[in-house]
């Protein structure tokens, strides 16, 4: 039985198709079909063919040594394969390159030269300065006093004036106390709006606090006692007007 037949029988015993074996071994299905037909030329050489046979044997669970022995009997190694391996070994030999100058050594030599020149200058500098000083004529230095800075006037902070609050409007307190039979009373402001309207019975009191004119109408003035800002006042008539100052307006007002 050929190696291709052995591979086919092992796959069928494992109950696998070409596609399933290709998925498990990651070998192309076309290459598997050619190997089962004893065509190993597509493997790229005996080395790769043996690797594929090992992978197939591992998946279908057979002894790979038996299959490899069968393959070696029918496919002995050829001379080109040895030549190819020798060429690969030769290509991997190390290549010798010409020695390049070591730049670190060059830079070190330059730095040493610079340091030596600096040391020479360091020890010869004082004598040079003395020689130059002896040749020069001293010059009298004239010092000009710096002008004194003029004092800047001190700016006093400006305190903003506090806004004055508007004066509160004058309020008038009007107290009406009824006696006897009382009276009907009407109290309005300068816009004829009613502040109070009704009957003050005997002994009753009505108090009005208002900022502005107060216009009072008494039906029976003799039965009403009038107090303006706490002061008892006798009105001139049944109808009278109390100014914001607390005074009763006269006909001239």
What is the radius of gyration? Answer: 65 Å
If you average the pLDDT, what whole number results?
A: 79
Strand order of the largest sheet: 4-1-6-7
> Uncertain runs with pLDDT below 50, 5 residues or more?
127-131
Regarding quaternary structure, what we see is: single chain
> What letter string, H or E per element, gives the SSE order?
HHHHHHHEEEEEEEE
Percentage of residues in helical conformation: 25-40%
Secondary structure tally: strands? 8
- Work out the strand percent: 15-25%
**Structure annotation, total helices:** 7
Topology, please?
Blueprint lengths: L2 H11 L4 H8 L3 H8 L9 H15 L3 H11 L4 H13 L11 H33 L36 E7 L4 E6 L5 E7 L4 E6 L3 E5 L5 E5 L2 E3 L5 E4 L11
Antiparallel strand pairs: 1-4, 1-6, 2-3, 2-5, 5-8, 6-7
Helix pairs in contact: 1-4, 4-5
Q: Care to describe what's here?
A:
This protein has helices at 3-13, 18-25, 29-36, 46-60, 64-74, 79-91, 103-135, and strands at 172-178, 183-188, 194-200, 205-210, 214-218, 224-228, 231-233, 239-242. By secondary structure, the chain is of the alpha+beta class. The strands form two sheets. Strands 4-1-6-7 form a four-stranded antiparallel beta sheet, with no helix packed on it. Helix 4 (46-60) packs antiparallel against helix 5. The longest helix is centred in the middle third of the chain and has 33 residues, at 103-135. The relative contact order is 0.07. Residues 127-131 have low confidence and may be disordered.
């Amino acid at each position: 039985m050929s190696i291709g037949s052995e591979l086919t029988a092992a796959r069928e015993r494992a109950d696998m198709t070409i596609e399933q074996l290709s998925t498990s071994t990651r070998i192309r299905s076309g290459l598997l079909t050619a190997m089962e037909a004893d065509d190993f030329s597509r493997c790229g050489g005996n080395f790769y063919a043996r690797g594929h046979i090992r992978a197939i044997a591992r998946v279908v669970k057979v002894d790979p040594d038996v299959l490899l022995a069968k393959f070696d009997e029918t496919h002995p190694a050829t001379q080109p394969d040895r030549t190819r391996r020798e060429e690969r070994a030769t290509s991997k030999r190390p290549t010798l390159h010409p020695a390049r100058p070591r730049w670190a050594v060059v830079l070190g030599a330059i730095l040493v030269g610079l340091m030596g020149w600096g040391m020479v200058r360091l020890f010869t500098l004082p004598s040079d300065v003395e020689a130059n000083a002896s040749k020069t004529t001293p010059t009298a230095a004239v010092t000009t006093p710096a002008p004194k800075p003029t004092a800047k006037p001190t700016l006093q902070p400006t305190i903003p004036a506090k806004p004055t609050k508007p004066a509160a409007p004058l309020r008038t307190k009007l107290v009406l106390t009824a006696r006897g039979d009382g009276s009907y009373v009407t109290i309005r402001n300068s816009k004829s709006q009613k502040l109070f309207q009704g009957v003050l019975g005997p002994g009753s009191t009505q108090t009005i606090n208002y900022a502005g004119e107060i216009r009072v109408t008494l039906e029976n003035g003799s039965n009403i006692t009038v107090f303006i800002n706490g002061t008892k006042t006798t009105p001139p008539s049944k109808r009278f007007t109390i100014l914001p100052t607390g005074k009763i307006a006269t006909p001239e007002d």
